[in-house]
Amino acid sequence: MKIYTRTGDKGKTRIIGNDVLYKSDKRIESYGSVDELNSLVGVIIANLSDKTAVFAPELTEIQQLLFDCGTDLAISQNDTKHEFIFTEDHKYADWLEKKIDEYSEKVPKIQKFILPGGSKTASSLHLARTVTRRAERNIVALLQEEPINDEVLKFINRLSDYFFAAARYANVLDGVDDIQYRNSKPVFR
Predict the structure, then answer these.
(1) What are the tens digits of pLDDT across the range 175-184?
(2) What distance in Å separates the CA atoms of residue 98 and residue 105, rounded to the nearest whole number?
(3) What pLDDT, on the 0 to 100 scale, is given for residue 17?
(4) What is the pLDDT of residue 186?
(5) Degrees (nearest 5) of the Cα angle 40, 63, 69?
(6) CB-CB contact of 129 with 164 (8 Å)
(7) Is the pLDDT at 16 greater than 80, yes or no?
(8) CA 154 to CA 142: how far, in whole Å?
(9) Closest by alpha carbon to 100, among 73, 71, 62, 137?
(10) In angstroms, rounded to a whole number, what is the distance separating the alpha carbons of residues 74 and 133?
């Protein structure tokens, strides 16, 4: 099987449902940014320390869920043959909220903004948070033009919070302090 189709040679690509769109289309930008995030999560898994290896199973699950998100974002609004994978029944956002709560209980309370960084794992998780936010912005831009699966947006929104909480917990596991932003006034009470 050949992996090239030559469709892209003219700046276009085919999505689920057989619509052909320019690669600059907001739909392509949306699931492309989710794909980029998925790749970054793979890099994070490959570079986990012995102390942060506890994240591997859930990060692998997140990769699976991100692929589902990308699939749903790639389904044309004109497609009547394919159904969304991501549904409210699965409660993926709830799963992330439980993880966020769990990690938030294991880290020092913060009152000020913190800088993204710390240990290698924490720094990578903070990067994943910012890539998630960009993916979210791309998805919202698509949403403003055509319908999408709302459950994908809900999951992606919660995922950035997960990466923040996981980054802070990774610093705890690796014995590294969060770095407070020096000009921050107390904002979290």
Answers:
(1) 999 999 998 8
(2) 11
(3) 65
(4) 86
(5) 105
(6) yes
(7) no
(8) 14
(9) 62
(10) 19
162's tokens:
């997960």
The span from the CA of 183 to the CA of 170, in Å, is: 24
Res. 27 pLDDT band, cuts 50 70 90: confident
Distances (CA, A) of 59 to 9, 20, 72: 34, 32, 20
If residue 56 lies in a helix (H) or strand (E), which one and from where to where?
A: helix 56-73
Q: What would the mean pLDDT of 84-107 be, rounded to a whole number?
A: 91
Q: Could you tell me which residues come within 8 angstroms of residue 83 by beta carbon, excluding any fewer than 6 positions away? A: none
CA distance 43 to 31: 19
**Cα–Cα distance, 63 to 83 (Å, whole number):** 20
Q: Over 90: is that where the pLDDT of 124 sits? A: yes
| Cα distances (Å, whole numbers) of residue 86 to 154, 156, 163, 167, 184 | 10, 12, 20, 26, 38
Beta bridge partners of 115: 179
Per-residue pLDDT tens for 102-113? 999 999 998 889
